Automatic annotation (TrEMBL):
NCBIfam families membership: PRK06105.1, PRK07480.1
Listed InterPro entries: Aminotrans_3, Aminotrans_3_PPA_site, PyrdxlP-dep_Trfase, PyrdxlP-dep_Trfase_major, PyrdxlP-dep_Trfase_small
Organism per entry: Aliisedimentitalea scapharcae
PANTHER family (UniProt xref): AMINOTRANSFERASE, AMINOTRANSFERASE CLASS-III
Record lineage: Bacteria, Pseudomonadati, Pseudomonadota, Alphaproteobacteria, Rhodobacterales
Protein name (Swiss-Prot/TrEMBL): Aspartate aminotransferase family protein
Family: Belongs to the class-III pyridoxal-phosphate-dependent aminotransferase family.
Amino acid sequence: MTAITNHMPTEELQALDAAHHMHPFTANGELADKGVRVITRAKGVYLTDSEGCEILDGMAGLWCVNIGYGRDELADIAARQMRELPYYNTFFQTTHVPAIALADKIAELTPGDLNHVFFAGSGSEANDTNIRMVRHYWALKGKPDKSIFISRKNAYHGSSVGSGSLGGMSAMHAQGGIPIPDIHHIEQPHWWAEGGESSPEDFGLTRARALEDAILELGEDRVAAFIAEPVQGAGGVIVPPETYWPEIQRICDKYEILLIADEVICGFGRTGNWFGSETMGIRPDIITIAKGLSSGYAPIAASVVSEEIAGVIASDEFNHGYTYSGHPVAAAVALENIRILEEEQIVDQVRVDTGPYLKEKWESLVDHPLVGEAKIVGMMASIALTPDKKTRAKFAADEGTVGLICREKSFANNLIMRHVGDRMVISPPLVISRSEIDLMIKRARLALDDCLEQITGDGLM
Ligand code: PMP
């Protein structure tokens, strides 16, 4: 059998991919007909494909490559750790230095008294940990009926049975028998799509008070926790109105409901602070971290919990864990990633320099005829596409039709932008420079122009 390498013709790689590889969140039959793009290497903010095209990655992979591609330091650390101790578990009275050091570092970086780290391999797994740990916590406190999680429609918390249930994606709930019992979804603070005639401020309060209504309806003695992303990511980079989070915090405090901030995207600098909870001014009892923890160079995630929760959980055996919890190679890579984020002051740079620069450029896109609003926090941003900015109208086509066209035009202009319905989103590597931001915006405008031309031709505008 011939070896399958980067040097094979693209069509052969595409045919092999179509024959044996099932892609996540993809209609695989359709993809096979269309032909997949083969990414062969990456450096900084650029990907290269098998045809030699250089593509600016406006999504940092899946919101994760915060320090950019091609940092040899991480490869070196991984190789060193693999030689020294490639694997050991932390289940039965053992530990190892990478897990000790990473937990210590995370406890130092995370806000408040979030000082105890339970490792996992992915954000989905960490949120599954949260479901089991929170329910066990309340049971240990003599309140086993406090088992309901309140989450939000259009939230994303992962794809496993538990985390997919926490999430509020209706297309996911339509398949595979989720959500599991005792997960309750309230409406999201998405003013552009759902705010109607109310001001963003009033709407933010209304949507926060939906949490209070749900607690009162379900019973305070039944509700365990509220989970949310500080800024919804996969839902379309929905930045909540300023009134939203303070009211949510007040309600969680009043009813003794644990607040879980899912920081899988927002953590490690994405919003211009180390954690989105800091940007949004909230005090979570638990945070979920993944992605930027290792900049995607190795799969690793964690639930980071307060002194109170860790103390209660420590009083009993917690029958939960993963083979790769605290994997030494992934932990060593994450530590090196954090060292780079700190030493190169990448988070500060996003907050005071490149973030504000991107904000100015991104918000200027609202002068484009297709763009209704532009939202941005740090380096996660979205624009709403609309045929009528004043009325925030939808297109006369299925939701997502125009977004998909725009994504394809973006791809054709060598920029990775993602669409969520008819919103376009970006989340570039945090190391993106000013000149690379200029290029990203230029390509985004070309994509918008090309999209406008096509949908005008199609009679959608
Ligand atoms: N939570 C959030 C907020 C996410 O964005 C994601 C992934 N996009 C997850 C959880 C799930 O992480 P993973 O894909 O690593 O399981």
